[in-house]
Structure formats: structure tokens, C-alpha cells
């Protein structure tokens, strides 16, 4: 058995590229999902967080506004948890005011399980497919009673990311 620290040895290192994603069908929830994922990752220096931020900005940047999550908490090894507070500025934003999302979490499957996020069989199949391709998976789940008619978290964005393999990786292994 041979073990490698793959980052920088077999891969280029740096921020992984988001290669796949699945987002909620609702146009309102799509913007929430993108905005909240970017906001949760905004202060993180973790390479995966940088990759997520880059992807969100490329895909949705022009549709996003200033941060909506002033209160965040990092949960080491699992993800991020954010409370959405309604300030005067946020209350004037009609979509946010209409649906009033309250919390968002972003992280790995273990974090979703701990927070009792129920994923559909299709979502789980997609995550398994991405993981078998050697990708890291990130899930964004939203608590939004006005939309989901429940206080539970619902998955609204799934992403897969991976480091680019170095051109000389085969030589390193040999």
C-alpha cells in the first residue's frame, strides 16, 4: 500500500474547480442558494471554499447582492452554519422579505445527516456518482418555512469539486 498526500503531489493544489452542480428548480430558491453559498464561504480561506466562491461568482455573480448572513459559524471538518438576520435593508428586498429564510448550512454529507437534511434518492445517487469520480461534494441546505412549509432544512444546491491532476502525476506514481 502506498499513500500520497495528493494536494500538490498528484494534483495542482490551490482552489478546486466545481465540476458539477444541481440546483433547486425554483428561480427564487436558485438565487437564495447561490447567494447564501457565496456568503457562507466569503471569509473562509479553505481551498474548497474558494472554489465554491469562484464558481458562484462566475455563474450568478451579476444577480447577487451584498451579504445576507451576518452571523456564521464554522463547524470544523463538517461545514458552515449561518443565521439570516433581517435588517432594514434586507426587509426592503422583496424576494427575501416574502420568503424569509432563517438559516442555511453548507457542508459535507455528514453535516447534512447531523442536521436531519432529507435528501431524495436522486440527490443521493448524484452525490455517490460524484464521489466515485474522486470529487469532493458540498451541499447547501436552507431553512425557509414560508417556501417549504416546514422548519426542516431542505437541500437546495449540490456541488462537486476536484483538484486538477498534474500532468506529471503518472511519473510521480511510477
Features:
23% strand; globular; alpha+beta; 8 helices; 6-stranded antiparallel β-sheet; 6 strands; 38% helix; 174 residues
Plain-language structure description:
The chain is of the alpha+beta class and 174 residues long. 38% of the residues lie in helices and 23% in strands. It has a 6-stranded antiparallel sheet with strand order 1-6-5-4-3-2. Helix 1 (27-41) runs antiparallel to helix 2.
**What's the order of the H and E elements?**
EHHEEHHEHHEHEH
Total strand segments: 6
Major sheet: arrangement of strands: 1-6-5-4-3-2
Helix content: 25-40%
* Count of individual helical segments: 8
Gyration radius, in Å: 17 Å
Unreliable residue runs? none
Instruction: Give the integer mean of the pLDDT values.
Output: 85
Estimated share of beta-strand residues: 15-25%
Alpha-beta content class: alpha+beta
The termini sit apart by 14 Å
Question: Globular, elongated, flat, extended or rod-shaped: what is the shape?
Answer: globular
Biggest pleated-sheet summary: 6 strands, antiparallel
Topology:
Layout: E1 17-23, H1 27-41, H2 47-60, E2 71-75, E3 79-83, H3 88-91, H4 94-99, E4 103-107, H5 109-114, H6 121-132, E5 136-143, H7 145-148, E6 153-162, H8 169-173
Antiparallel strand pairs: 1-6, 2-3, 3-4, 4-5, 5-6
Amino acid at each position: 500500500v502506498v499513500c500520497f498526500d495528493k494536494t500538490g503531489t498528484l494534483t495542482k493544489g490551490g482552489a478546486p474547480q466545481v465540476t458539477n452542480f444541481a440546483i433547486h428548480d425554483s428561480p427564487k430558491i436558485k438565487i437564495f442558494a447561490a447567494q447564501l453559498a457565496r456568503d457562507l464561504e466569503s471569509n473562509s480561506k479553505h481551498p474548497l471554499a474558494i472554489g465554491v466562491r469562484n464558481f458562484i461568482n462566475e455563474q450568478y455573480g451579476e444577480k447577487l447582492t451584498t451579504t445576507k448572513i451576518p452571523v456564521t459559524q464554522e463547524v470544523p471538518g463538517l461545514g458552515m452554519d449561518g443565521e439570516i438576520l433581517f435588517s432594514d435593508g434586507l426587509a426592503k428586498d422583496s424576494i427575501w422579505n416574502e420568503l424569509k429564510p432563517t438559516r442555511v448550512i453548507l457542508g459535507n454529507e455528514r453535516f447534512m445527516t447531523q442536521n436531519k437534511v432529507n435528501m431524495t434518492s436522486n440527490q443521493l445517487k448524484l452525490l455517490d456518482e460524484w464521489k466515485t469520480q474522486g470529487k469532493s461534494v458540498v451541499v447547501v441546505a436552507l431553512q425557509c418555512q414560508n417556501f417549504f412549509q416546514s422548519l426542516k432544512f431542505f437541500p437546495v444546491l449540490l456541488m462537486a469539486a476536484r483538484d486538477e491532476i498534474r500532468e506529471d502525476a503518472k511519473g510521480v506514481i511510477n
